[in-house]
Amino acid sequence: AAPGVAAPLAVSVLDLSPKPSRLLGAPMNIEFEAVVGGEMTEADFDLTVDTIRRRMAQAGAVSAVGRSVTWTSLARQRTVHVSVLSRNGKTTIRAAENMESLGRRARIIGLIGGGYLTAGTVGISAHLFANAGNLGIVGAVGLAGLTFGAVLAAARYSYGTSARKRQARLRKLTEELVEQARQSIESTNAAIASGGRLKLTP
After folding, report:
1. For 25, left (φ over 0), alpha (ψ -120 to 50), or beta?
2. Is the pTM value of this prediction over 0.85?
3. Phi, then psi, of 57 in degrees rounded to 5
4. How far apart, in whole angstroms, are the C-alpha atoms of residue 178 and residue 10?
5. Backbone phi, then psi, for 14, in 5-degree steps?
6. CA proximity to 167, closest of 40, 5, 52, 28
7. C-beta separation of 85 from 202 below 8 A
């Protein structure tokens, strides 16, 4: 930082994601937020957008209003929203993803798919254990329960794996945007002290 100008303080990325779904074992939405002391100049927002595009590796719509810029994904299968707001002596960075669509598919596979397979298992088991009396009924029900549980566990594992990967990517993006904001603020502080204006290097 320039002499006489305070450097931005250390920044923590807050995980504001809701509690994990009891059925799927992971949150249905992901959200991170970080607040950097000092205002990032809008002249550096182009680097912010470039970083978001590169990290998300998908098309998105950009909206810049005053001292804020937002990026929203255009892919139908993913809903991601990233914003950077520079105001009142601070820069707020938020990154969020709605995973309801992914969770819905996992629930369909786990509950409906598991239900169909369980019904089929009951039919087959009933035929195989037809002459086993009550013991056969217990065996058929037990096998059906194992089938349903296995399908549900597979769907839960698949969703949890995807959710964790997306969560890690979004956190990494937020951390990178925090570092860019810090550099921008430090550059501005140095420029103020020297009477000029520096711009971040891509």
Report:
1. left
2. no
3. 55, 45
4. 10
5. -90, 135
6. 28
7. no
